[in-house]
Amino acid sequence: MEALKKRILAEGRPVGTDVIKVDSFLNHQIDAEFMYEIGEEFKKRFESKEITKILTIEASGIAIAVCTAKFFGYPPVVFAKKAAPNTMVEGFYSTGAQSFTKDAAAQIVIAKKFISKEDKILIIDDFLAYGEAAFALCNLAEQAKAQIVGVGAVIEKEFQGGGKRLRENGYFVKSLAIIEKIEDGKIVFKE
Ligand code: 5GP
Fold first, then answer.
1. CB 54 within 8 A of CB 69
2. pTM of the model
3. Count of other CB atoms within 10 angstroms of residue 69
4. What is the whole-number distance in angstroms between the Cα of residue 16 and the centre of ligand 1?
5. pLDDT tops 80 at residue 84
6. Which end of the chain, N or C, is more open, meaning fewer C-beta atoms within 10 Å of its C-beta?
7. What strands lie across the sheet with 53-57, from one edge to the other?
8. Three-class SS of residue 127?
9. Which residues contact ligand 1 via a Cβ below 6 A?
10. Rounded to the nearest whole angstrom, what is the distance from the C-alpha of residue 71 to the centroid of ligand 1?
11. Interval 134-148: pLDDT, tens
């Protein structure tokens, strides 16, 4: 997605060789109009797919998933929570995931009532790095015996291998911008 690549180059800040900060439009301050462009682009990438729910993870995935839902006719958006709140008194699915940004292992949960075996799930997130978050979301959906029709990431950092692992495991993965490497403080996209 050319507009996204331009935006990353103009506003993205590499932190070392592993992390990119895009907090001016995606992760802290959100450019709502641009989120809808991202949602429309996801629709193009998953055009042929029938989707009954979009699954993401709090917090950064939520706005992206909601803006994407518009272009699929507003299927419900479910977001995994990073801890089971005490209001979640009914059953929930739970799995472990290593958090990239917090460098710690965490449990993520979704209430059982929001995903069922009839669901066709599109997983959406902001970044795809090592794939921990995406695999954890797949795991939750699979516990519910739902079908995963695709995994969409706004930004994939190819060099961290999560996209490759997901594809090797048979998931249909589409990323709107793929970064090959961060070198000498510069972001290099995959052609
Ligand atoms: P993974 O689980 O694939 O290793 O990492 C993906 C998750 O970590 C995403 O949910 C995202 O929030 C966070 N993340 C991974 N890499 C980056 C990055 O370079 N910048 C930011 N802001 N978040 C990242």
1. yes
2. 0.96
3. 21
4. 14
5. no
6. C
7. 77-80, 53-57, 120-128, 147-157, 173-183, 186-189
8. strand
9. 19-21, 27, 57, 60, 100-101, 125-134, 162
10. 24
11. 999 999 999 999 999
